[in-house]
Amino acid sequence: MKAAAGRLLLRDVCVSVFFSALLFCLLVVSAMAQSTASLNGIVTDASGAAVPGAKVMVTNQATGVSSTSQTDSAGAYLFPSLPIGVYRIEVTASGFQKAVVTDLNLPVATSVAQNVQLKIGETAITVEISADAVILDTTTNSMGQVINDKYVQDIPLNGRHFTDLSLLTPGTITPPANGFLSAPLRGQGSFGINTAGQREDTTNWLVNGINLNDPVQNQITFQPPIDTLAEFKIDNSAFPAEYGRNSGAIVNMATRSGTNAFHGEAFEFIRNNDLDARNFFNTVPNPQAPFNRNEFGADFGGPIKKNKAFFFLAYEGIRQHQSLTVTSTVPSVNERATVSSAAVNSLLALIPAANTVGNGTATDPNTFTGFTGGALANVSLNQGSADFDLDLRQQDRIHAYYVVQKDLREEPTAGGAIGANIPGFGDTRDGFRHLGTLSEDHTFGPTLANTVRLGFNRIHLTFTPNAFLDPTNFNIGMPAGSPAASGLPFINVAGTLGFGGPTGEPQGRGDTTAVLNDTLSWLKGRHTFVFGGEIRRAYNNNIAENIGSFTYTSMANFLSDSGNAFTDLLGSGNNKILQPAYDVFAQDSFKWRPNFTFNIGLRYGWNSTPSEAAGRFTNFDTATGTLVSARQPYHTNNKNFQPRIGFAWDPFKNGKTSVRAAYAIMTQAPTINIITGLSSNPLFAVPLQLGSATNSIRLANPFPAGTGISLGPFAINPNFDNSYAQDWNLTIQRQVTSTLGIEVAYVGVKGTHLQFSQNINQPFVTNGVYGSTRPFPTLPLTSPVLPAQCAPPNPVCPLGNFSGNGQINSGGNSHYNALWATVNKHFSHGLQFQGSYTFSKSLDYNSLSTGESLIIQNAYNPRGDYGLSEFDVRHRFVLSGFYELPFKSNRLVSGWQFGVTQQAQTGSPLNPTLAIGPGPGISLTVRPDLLQHVSGTGSPAQYFSNAVVCEPFNGAPSGGAPAIPNCATTPNAAFAIPCTFNSTPTAPGGSTYAVIPGTCHPGTLGRDAITGPGFLNTDFSVTKNTKITERFNLQFRSEMFDLLNHRNFGNPVLTATSGSFGKIQSTRFPTGDFGSSRQMQFALKLIF
Fold first, then answer.
1. Distance between CA 901 and CA 164 in Å, rounded?
2. Which of the 8 DSSP states describes residue 172?
3. Statement: residue 79 has pLDDT above 60
């Protein structure tokens, strides 16, 4: 063991030394991201001949900071890394008049070409040249779109979350209702996006060139204050080699800096329920749940020393107070009187009395079973940031940025599979997040420049149950080793009553990603070379406990203390993980002709396998059916060669038309969470599962002697591979006017080695039918790793049975094909707008969202789950813009501006399932059989055109469950339970089956075969700017989100065996976020 550890340590040291030496020798370590801009061009005389040796000086018009270069023998000049902003260019050469270009805008992460033609004459004579509008891209293969400062600061934006601005770009969709990272968190917005057919965890978020991804889930660590962002750019297809780490979009954010003039603002945004429309599902006479949101802050920037050093400071706070309405089914007074179990009686004290009829009789309150109540869901957030720029000399510029966020969020409905639905439970989530960036730009000469960046991002999260209740005080007998002091196990009663828990808590983690990257740019004749690389080191410390859960199939079974399932984790899954990664790249932009550029590059990435500091990883070995120590959970992914090739062509040589094409391979760095579960396996923890078809599980002693307890170990395939995407595109751009451009593009993406979860212990499928034999029925006592309960001299392991074993695999594929059409109107005559239309189709095995539970239906036929991606959207249209009214005669009529954002898209796919196992060890994601075509009706009362479900045997199940009609006598049924029953099916009670008996098979309904509700949303703003003095401006804003109060429905109930199957019960996103109902916001800003 020690020798193996020594070899691993030696390997890591050697790798680190090798890459450090390589970076030192090359002076490089990857730009992978530009939060700056690049400026290039060719200086010619009147005849078109190159002018070598011309002096080119660029000056930032806001800061006065200048940089100087010189044209080479081909007349070319290059400034590879300039802060974003508006610039002045001065070009001088002996025998020529001085040429001056003003008001040249350099957007973030963009290469701008500005050619200059000199006239013969005296240098003292100055010729003014109009800057070329950045409408077309005739030199690079970027498919990105810049969201400029006006959009960032002024677009109507619900919650003021900058990630929502990504929805303005082609290829990006409004997230599905059951999205994971992409769906908005309460008060904090989305932490991921789906764009260009890629999963929501494939986006690379960058602030000033430093990675802002959480290494555990690959989400954005937090959203920087929107008032500190100058602009950002989203690239979502075939990037150049300087970009890596992720296979999806690159989001480059550039922060605001100080200028030569002091400037700042103070603001407050206010929202409350008084002016909001009533949610569609909150009907009269029910009161509207209270909602109040205040967002306030200030920023201030200016010179420390003019033309030399600058600062920009900012603070923002959010206070959101929200009350949620919770509904549940609770025991009636009459039912409570029948309880004899001491444990159940003690739990009844936690359950509120019924206050609505529910399933009872309206004339007898003692039979009422419905409960409606309120629960607080508050959010508090504070952010502070500081930005500094220092121009040491024309050859050196230093930039530093730091931001910190403290947030607290209450989630009263957090729980198990259904969530807590009575007051007093749920959890509180505490976050502490940091980001720091430091960069230095150095110019060695007119053709050689270098940028080095150093930074880190850190996140510390804790999830704490709101109710710390000792189970022993409720006569609940938890097994030895269970974290009983952490709280009460979660109680799930027939999917209609949930309290306790939450399961999987308490938990917390601290993650730090340290980044060093550097880029060397070299202009050589017609070639622009860029070399670089990057070192990343991700550290993850986890606290992982699980207080367990009990499941009951009916209220009657709960009251009689008759459970059918219990899960628990003995011990803890704590761990400390390190994951290094190394990248190098080379890129060449070769101007083959003045109007034709080739872009060729190669990137190599080494994503090291994560390691655990104390060797706490245990994996399941499918070759021997045993548990084994796993210091290296999966093989090292060191073959990540990523070529990039493309061209850009100006066919008419006038800069008004561009034809571009590109192909690229981009590798996805694996997330840490694919291996964190390995520390929850024996020896250090024991994941237990107990099921009882006869409902014999008792609260006082859930694990009686002789009970068939099962292990449910976590596993990862030791041959797990990095996923990668192959991107290709063809675009045509045309400049219609000096401020208007259009673009049409075809975009294709193929994903390979995509992650999905597979039940490797599923019973074999023979002749299309689930059998009863599993590959791994028991854990042999010869296993290299055994739970303590199974260690010798125990002759029989009491925990020796295996349940379903989920294994992380990398065998998924995806395909995306799309047409993107875009129009972009730059600001002129008071008008600015951009619009896009996307026609696309996305297919995959699994879309990595919680809505699909990650498990495929049949472990032995993954291709059977190949279907529409959960984020597939066939048609999407977006339009956004501003119009400033031209009236300027006095303060009353001047300063008015209108803003609008319009989104319209077709629905995302739906995936009906049984949500119950057709037999022991079979996935809960089995789909029903499809008997007839089903489409969406748009009605929330019953969304499916045919929601009739039948079963092959006619008869009412015992225990009180409603009968499902016989297929033979129900010719109009659209769905069937995929089983053949030999006798009357038995359900222990309640409204759903616990286990379906009989001979069953994987359902014939295709995955994601039905289209869900679409999305239509219009946001509108009215802004009034009033000059108080020459320097001070008072801005009043009125913003209306979902102006037309369109009914944006969430998904219908997708459990085919539920009595609510097909019914829509909520809007797309919760009240307080976009997609729920019309909401209004007012703001006041003092700007100077």
1. 11
2. B
3. yes
Question: How far is the C-alpha of 72 from the C-alpha of 74, rounded, in Å?
Answer: 5
What values do phi and psi take at 36, rounded to 5?
-105, -165
- Whole-structure pTM value: 0.91
Q: What percent of the chain has pLDDT over 90?
A: 66
Q: Is residue 310 a contact partner of residue 265, using CB atoms and an 8 Å limit?
A: no
Both tokens of 480, joined, read 């030895």
| Res. 553 pLDDT band, cuts 50 70 90 | confident
In sequence order, the 6+-apart residues with CB closer than 8 A to the CB of 564 are 551, 552, 553, 557, 691, 692, 693, 695, 697, 988, 994
Can you read off the two tokens belonging to residue 902?
Answer: 């319009």
Spatial separation of the C-alpha atoms in residues 846 and 195, rounded to whole Å: 16
- Using CA atoms, how far apart are residues 253 and 5, in angstroms rounded to an integer? 41
**What is the model's pLDDT at position 484?**
56
User: pLDDT, tens digit, for every residue of 1066-1084?
Assistant: 898 876 677 789 999 999 9
**Do 1056 and 999 meet the contact criterion of CB atoms below 8 Å apart?**
no
**Cβ atoms 234, 143 nearer than 8 A:** no
Q: Rounded distance, CA 1069 to CA 179, Å?
A: 10
Higher pLDDT, residue 993 or 306: 306
Q: In angstroms, rounded to a whole number, what is the distance separating the alpha carbons of residues 569 and 355?
A: 36
Unique residue bearing structure tokens 């050689």: 448
| Between 239 and 381, residue with greater pLDDT | 381
Q: What are the DSSP E strand ranges found in 545-633?
A: 549-552, 565-571, 575-593, 596-607, 611-612, 618-621, 626-629
**Residue 54 class from Cβ within 10 Å (0-12 exposed, 13-18 middle, 19+ buried)?**
buried
CA trace torsion 692, 698, 703, 709 (10° rounding): 10
Domains along the sequence of the chain with CATH: 37-130 (2.60.40.1120), 145-265 (2.170.130.10), 266-909+1013-1087 (2.40.170.20)
Q: Contact at 8 Å (CB) between 57 and 71?
A: no
Average pLDDT over residues 770-781: 85
Burial of 352 (0-12, 13-18, 19+ CB in 10 A): middle
Q: Give the span between the Cα atoms of 1047 and 1050, in whole angstroms.
A: 10
Angstrom distance (rounded) from CA 157 to CA 163? 10
Q: How far is it, in rounded angstroms, from Cα 70 to Cα 58?
A: 11
CA distance 1039 to 1036: 10
- pLDDT above 50: residue 989: no
**In this predicted model, what pLDDT tens digit does every residue of 712-725 receive, in sequence order?**
889 999 999 999 99
SS3 content of the chain, % helix, strand, coil (to 5): 10, 45, 45
Mean pLDDT of 683-711: 80
With contact defined as beta carbons under 8 Å apart, do 43 and 91 qualify? yes
Phi, psi of 226 (to 5 degrees): -65, -25
Q: Give the pLDDT of residue 864.
A: 92
- Report angle CA 225, 228, 232 to the nearest 5 degrees: 95
Q: How far is 960 from 962, CA to CA, in rounded Å? A: 6
Here the tokens at position 246 are 């992720």
Report yes or no: 274 and 287 within 8 Å, Cβ to Cβ. no
- Who wins on pLDDT, 579 or 8? 579
Q: Binning pLDDT at 50, 70 and 90, where does residue 849 land?
A: low
Q: Are 427 and 505 in contact (CB under 8 A)?
A: yes
How far is it, in rounded angstroms, from Cα 536 to Cα 559? 54
Nearest-Å Rg of the Cα atoms of the chain is 31
The C-alpha angle 929, 933, 934, rounded to 5 degrees, equals 90
Q: What is the dihedral of CA 1000, 1003, 1004, 1010, to 10 degrees?
A: 160
